[in-house]
Write a structure and sequence with these properties.
Largest sheet: 9 strands, antiparallel
Order of helices and strands: EEEEHEEHHHEEE
Structural class: alpha+beta
Number of helices: 4
Oligomer: single chain
Helix content: 25-40%
Distance between the termini: 22 Å
Shape: elongated
Number of strands: 9
Length: 167
């Protein structure tokens, strides 16, 4: 999904992240919380996401809402089910920080691998998940002649209000 956040100066940022789940809570993704996106979410815990399916489906789903941290148990569960190489790279990478070159990254991973040996890779305390809790969800279906179908669902108390939007 494309995830949009806003930094302390009001500058929007957008990037692709892997949505790891969607349920009644919202949309789940994981990251280094010391990354640019982690700092942006700490400063302003609001975000928007877009899922896109190109032709022939020609659909998108837009989500706007607030961000809450995922439970630590979920962070642990997901981190330790990932491939070992992904665990090492996530733990060793100073995400969003300037590094000298690719070799520096490889050395960081190798150093951590030597330190850990055959033991379980510890989940860094700054690595974990977030849930985008939707305040609104819009479903968009492309149609011929640009007469697209758009339906927006807005949280209304304990339920949702549905609106049809003009394209």
């Amino acid at each position: 999904m494309a995830l949009a956040t806003v930094d302390r100066d009001g500058q929007p940022h957008c990037r692709i992240v892997l949505c790891k789940g969607a349920d009644a809570r919202g949309f789940l993704f994981f990251t280094n919380k010391q990354s640019d996106k982690g700092e942006q979410l700490a400063a302003n815990p609001k975000a928007a996401a877009t899922f896109w399916w190109p032709a022939p489906r020609n659909r998108q789903v837009r989500v706007v809402g607030t961000i809450v941290p995922a439970p630590a148990a979920l962070d642990d569960e997901y981190f330790w089910q990932r491939p070992r190489r992904a665990q090492l790279c996530s733990a060793a990478s100073p995400q969003s920080q300037v590094v000298r070159d690719r070799d520096e990254l490889e050395q960081r991973v190798q150093q951590l691998e030597r330190q850990v040996g055959d033991a379980v890779v510890p989940r860094p305390p700054h690595w974990g998940g977030y849930v985008l809790v939707p305040a609104s969800i819009e479903f968009w279906q492309g149609r011929d002649g640009r007469l697209h179908d758009r339906f927006r669902f807005v949280r209304d108390g304990a339920g949702w209000r549905a609106d049809r939007l003009a394209p």
